[in-house]
Every structure is written in structure tokens, then in C-alpha cells.
Amino acid sequence: QVQLVESGGGLVQAGGSLRLSCAVSGRTFTGVSMGWFRQAPGKEREFVAGISRDATRTSYADSVKGRFTISRDNAKSTVYLQMNSLKPEDTAAYSCAADWRFATEEVTTTGTGYRYWGQGTQVTVSS
């Protein structure tokens, strides 16, 4: 059974940093494409960042480019989202997503493309 468990959320002041982690279990991590999404109250879920199976390609939402970095550690079966220069508008519930059906270098930016999801971790940025 595939499980995704996020951690690392919390309350931070504007300009601060957080690193989110998503630990994957139940299936071989090296074959999985991963993504981070977020949803703020009253808003639709939006894509934040994604990384291909072989980590050669990444993709970011325009709103986080230059501030957020997605990475993966295959030895730990974990994907990370380093978030710097946080803004109040980054406040949301962040969820990781995974799937094994994509091509090696493919990055999927749509939520409907992923079949496996974590429960989410809350990030709150105060002004």
C-alpha cells in the first residue's frame, strides 16, 4: 500500500524559510514522479512544483520560481520542497503527490495526473 507522509509545515514570518518533506513508502521510490500542490482556504488547489523520476527535470509555478526548490533523495525515499523568501500569499495546506506511470523525464503539473496523495501539511506565513 502506497503511503505519502508530509512534514515540515508550520508558522513562519514573511521572508522566512521552511523545508517540507514527503516520505514515500509501499513502492519503489526510484520509479516515481513527484509533485507538490497547495490549497488556500476558498481557493482551488494549485500546482507548486514537480520533479521527474530521474530528477533531471523540474517544474515550478510562476508564483514560486526563484524562491522554492524541489529535490529528491532516493536513498531516503523522500522528496523535499525548500521554501525561501516566504510571503503571506504562500499560506496554504501543502500536499505531495506521486505516480509511477509517467515517462522517465516527464513532470506532471496537473493534480488529476497523480493517483497518490499525502494528507497535507499546513504552512502559515505571517506578515
Topology:
Elements: E1 3-7, E2 10-13, E3 18-25, E4 33-39, E5 46-51, E6 58-60, E7 68-73, E8 78-83, E9 92-99, E10 116-117, E11 121-126
Parallel strand pairs: 2-11
Antiparallel strand pairs: 1-3, 3-8, 4-5, 4-9, 5-6, 7-8, 9-10, 9-11
Question: How would you explain this protein's 3D organization?
Answer:
This protein has 127 residues and is mainly β. Helices cover 0% and strands 48% of the residues. The protein contains no helices and eleven strands. Strands 2, 4, 5, 6, 9, 10 and 11 form a seven-stranded mixed sheet that branches. β7 (68-73) and β8 form a beta hairpin. It is globular, with a radius of gyration of 14 Å. The termini are far apart.
Could you give a short description of this structure?
Helix content is about 0%, strand content about 50%.
How many E strands?
A: 11
Q: What proportion of the residues form beta strands (DSSP E)?
A: over 45%
Sequence of secondary-structure elements: EEEEEEEEEEE
**Helical amount:** under 10%
Number of helices: 0
Structural class: mainly beta
Question: What does the average pLDDT come to?
Answer: 96
What coarse outline follows from CA principal-axis ratios?
globular
Oligomer: single chain
Calculate Rg over CA atoms.
Answer: 14 Å
Q: How would you characterize the largest beta sheet?
A: 7 strands, mixed
Quote the distance from N terminus to C terminus: 40 Å
| Uncertain residue segments | none
